Amino acid sequence: MLNKIGNGINTILMYNLFFVCFCFLWFVIALAGRQLNFPLGFDIWYSLWPSLIQPAISILMAASILAGLVGLIRKRLPSSDQGQIDLDSSNRD
Q: Secondary structure of the chain: what % helix, strand, coil (to 5)?
């Protein structure tokens, strides 16, 4: 169960990271175009900032923290392999 949650969080993080990187690249290009008086969508980007881009950045940060916590919980929980005797180790002599 914890494995599925961790994998789901990682998938969301991956897609969200690409979206945030795309938005940042769009911002840089649009800002350069605005400085050169060449419209490259800065006004559109700015209108999407509070409703789409800020929440995407917030989700990325929250999911990163959550993924870190899930990783810590995984390390601290005993795995199913502990406590079992390895029968093959006695035959390695």
A: 80, 0, 20
Report the C-alpha gap between 61 and 11 in whole angstroms: 14
Would you state the structure tokens that stand for residue 49, as one six-digit string? 């900032």
CA dist 50 and 70 (Å) reads: 29
The Cα–Cα gap between 27 and 24 comes to: 5
pLDDT in tens, 13-64: 899 999 999 999 999 999 999 999 999 999 999 999 999 999 999 999 998 8
Residue 78 DSSP code: P
d(C-alpha 35, C-alpha 37), whole Å: 5
DSSP state of 12: H
Domain boundaries, the chain: 17-76
| Model pTM score | 0.70
